[in-house]
Structure to design on (162 residues):
């Protein structure tokens, strides 16, 4: 079964309705992460309002010009945007390849896309975690040797233009 736009709309509506802050869905063909607390997309609220209107026709529709003005205001007043590297599994977090070696990344380091940023040990296997974007490490949220859960935030990265 393919994941279609109508499924995404239903999922986004359910996330909003049930007050879910973060959700991660993985399969062989799909990787989907939704994190409302990061405000990665300026238009998330407007998208959810649009979905609500489609599923709830009783909600009054706004004037189109007013909607465009709201979108422009949100873009101008948006806070800085950060990407969060999350753990895809349960395991032990390691910031370096071996105990006496330097860490893969430090605070304020610039990382490239697909650069290894840490290792998670799970069932005696070492799994390299890579950055999905080019940016600057602005926060490391876990300590070396700490046990972590699937979906737990590991690092925050400020996207940079290449």
């Amino acid at each position: 079964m393919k994941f279609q736009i109508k499924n995404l709309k239903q999922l986004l509506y359910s996330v909003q309705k049930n007050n879910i802050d973060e959700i991660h869905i993985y399969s062989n063909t799909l990787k989907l992460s939704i994190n409302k607390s990061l405000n990665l997309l300026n238009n998330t609220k407007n998208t959810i309002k649009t979905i609500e209107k489609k599923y709830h026709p009783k909600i009054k529709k706004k004037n189109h010009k007013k909607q465009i003005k709201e979108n422009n205001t949100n873009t101008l007043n948006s806070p800085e945007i950060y990407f969060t590297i999350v753990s895809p599994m349960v395991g032990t977090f390691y910031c370096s390849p071996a105990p006496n070696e330097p860490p893969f990344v430090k605070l304020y380091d610039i990382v490239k896309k697909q650069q290894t940023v840490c290792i998670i040990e799970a069932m005696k296997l070492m799994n390299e975690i890579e950055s999905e974007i080019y940016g600057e490490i602005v926060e490391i949220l876990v300590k070396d040797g700490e046990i972590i859960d699937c979906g737990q935030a590991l690092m925050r990265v400020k996207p940079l233009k290449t």
